[in-house]
Amino acid sequence: MDAFIKSPNLPEDKVTLAVVDGRVRKSIIEEMGRMGIEVIKADVCKDLYEAVQGHADMFMHHLRGKDIVIAPNAPIGTRNALSKHGFNLIEGDRVITRKYPGDIAYNVARAANYAICNKRYTDTKLLQCLHDLDIKIIDISQGYAKCSICIVNGDAFITSDEGIYKTLIKEGLDALKISPGNIELKGLDYGFIGGASGFISGDTLAFTGHLKRHPDYAAIKNFLEKHNKKIKNLDEYELMDTGTIIPLKEQKGEENC
Questions:
Q1: Is residue 142 scored above 80 in pLDDT?
Q2: In the chain, count of helices (H) and strands (E)?
Q3: pLDDT tens track for 86-115
Q4: What are 107-141's pLDDT values in tens digits?
Q5: Which of 4, 20, 121, 118 has the alpha carbon at shortest distance from 68?
Q6: Which CATH class for the 2-252 domain?
Q7: What is the pTM of this model?
Q8: How far apart are alpha carbons 161 and 180 in whole angstroms?
Q9: How far apart (Å, rounded) are the C-alpha atoms in residues 129 and 8?
């Protein structure tokens, strides 16, 4: 039996529903299907620039359980798919636009009791919701917070951004700094590790491609093992920034629903 994931990005059990960019490689969608994960293929938002038009982490933020804060101009098809699965869509205040910083209003890296974002440009409705849930905001200068941060658990993160890394360490959190690049994002020089990953179960972090193709594979593997996480490579190619694998539902017994 399915249940809504309580803590965004951090399922406790086997993921059964997730969102990814609908333009992702077919091999990745097929592999997720073989694992019993239903994929909502995010439609493109033509108000964003082409490279990230299908990146769900640009126009929605899973708040908790069935609640999702979503941009007023998020794609209709994606909205309908989420509603069909029983999600409560909370309309954000800010329309996302093509030019930075108008595109980062919902790009917040959420892990347990932390929300990492550029607070100045984050949607005001989303910030209010986070405040109401007593979530600590960690303010950073990097606007593409979720793209840039691979969440490992509520206290551990991987990023190639020096400023984010320093801020996380200053907050007393565990962080691994990796080299930038080596992640495909069509139309741009490269993508980011947060956008190329996401949990598919409580202990397994999936990557959209094969992690061994990244030069920092050994360091990432060791960091994940340190935090008791396994790796799942979704195909054999270079890592691909798909706007994050966003897990939304997981397998639960009736007694836990």
A1: yes
A2: 6, 16
A3: 999 999 999 999 999 999 999 999 999 999
A4: 999 999 999 999 999 999 999 999 999 999 999 99
A5: 4
A6: alpha beta
A7: 0.96
A8: 8
A9: 14
Q: In this structure, are residues 197 and 157 in contact, taking their beta carbons and an 8 Å threshold?
A: no
Has residue 205 got a pLDDT over 70? yes
User: Which of these, 209, 206, 205, lies nearest to 191 by C-alpha position?
Assistant: 209
Q: Is 179 exposed, middle or buried (0-12, 13-18, 19+ CB in 10 A)?
A: exposed
- Cα 94 from Cα 121, distance rounded (Å): 9
Sequence letter at residue 229: K
pLDDT at 253: 63
Mean pLDDT of the chain: 97
Strands 204-207 and 230-233: parallel
> How many Å separate Cα 231 from the centre of its chain?
16
Cβ pair 198, 205 in contact under 8 A: yes
Q: What is d(CA 119, CA 63) in angstroms, rounded to the nearest whole number?
A: 16
Q: Which helix (H) or strand (E) segment is 126 a member of?
A: helix 124-132
Q: How far is CA 63 from each of CA 107, 113, 127, rounded to the nearest angstrom?
A: 12, 11, 10
- Are 216 and 178 within 8 A, CB to CB? yes
Q: Give per-residue burial for 210-220: e unless 16+ CB within 10 Å, then b.
A: bbebbebeeeb
Position 207, amino acid: F
CA-based nearest residue to 178, from 199, 157, 153, 195: 157
CB 72 within 8 A of CB 80: no
Give yes or no for a contact between 159 and 169, defined as CB atoms under 8 angstroms apart: no
User: Cα(29)–Cα(229) distance, rounded to whole angstroms?
Assistant: 22
Tokens of residue 62, six digits: 């899973």
Q: In which residue are the tokens 């908790």 written?
A: 64
